[in-house]
Every structure is written in C-alpha cells, then in structure tokens.
Amino acid sequence: MIRISDLTVKYKNEIAIDKMSLSIEKEKTYAIIGKSGCGKTTLLYTIAGLISNYEGKLEIEGETSLILQNLGLFNWFTVYKNVELGLNKYNCTKKEKEKLVNDVLKELDLISLKDKYPKELSGGQKQRVAIARTIIRNPEILLLDEATSALDSINKEKIQELLLEIRNKRKIQ
After folding, report:
1. Which domains does the chain have, with CATH numbers?
2. Which stretches make up the ABC transporter domain (predicted)?
3. H or E, element range at 156
4. What is the pTM of this model?
C-alpha cells in the first residue's frame, strides 16, 4: 500500500509535483500516464526514496525497487556483477550471494550470459538484466520508469509478459 497526501516536489524554484494525493492498493497494478515533463519520473523517484526533499506525506508499506528508464546497467560490469549489485545493501555471505545471483539468472534465462557485458547484449537481454538486479531482493513493490520504451513491440510484449509472470510468482505489487 502506498498513500500520498499533498505531495509537493520542487527543483529549485520549479514545481514538479504540486500537492498530489494518491492511494495505491496492495496487489494491484497501476500505470501513471501523462505528457512528457508532467512529473511521472519525479513521482516514482520520490516513492523509491531517490528524492527525499519533498513536502507532504508519503507512506509506503513494503520495500520498493525501481527499474530506471535507461536501465542503469554499468557497462564495465558483467551481467553477473550488474545483478549482484542488487544485493549491495544486504549482509550476505559470498556463497549466499552466489546462489541468489545464479538463481535469478536462471529464472530470467540469463545464466549463459553471466560473463558478458551490456554492450554485448540485445535490448531485451539488457532489460532482463535490469529486472534481475531489481527482483533479486524480492521487493514487495516494483516501480518501472518507462522500462520498455527502448524496445520494439515484440520484445516489449515479451518483457511485459515476463513482468506479469514475475509479479504473480513472487507476489510483487
């Protein structure tokens, strides 16, 4: 559950979000639609905790995870290392990390690509790596910032189906 009351976010003197109120129920899927520059990304970044300088009230029940529009992959890291980064905040042994990373790579059919770099991957493969890094922590709430915008219609549909499958399997909101 996410509850937002009178949320205002400013960039210097420019108001990106002005007194927004919104309630998002658990176990539902929502889309935030609006024209470019209307504050969609700012809202997602605020919910994800990337923006903390805001006014109003923001209540979030559960851990959130965000897939960025540009995917946020590090070109100098392998697929394995990019996914492992999703565990940085967690105290895991090396063996536990290895198992978690390998399990999610298998789940998303990326295990054969684990030693490749992002520049060696297709758009859909990069997308799956970003998803793997995000879901490895098993968040309760998954936020996507135009996460399929760079894909062709066939891959976009495949990624959307994969996300629904993951949502249902892992009980992600």
Report:
1. 2-61 (3.40.50.300), 67-170 (3.40.50.300)
2. 2-172
3. helix 153-170
4. 0.78
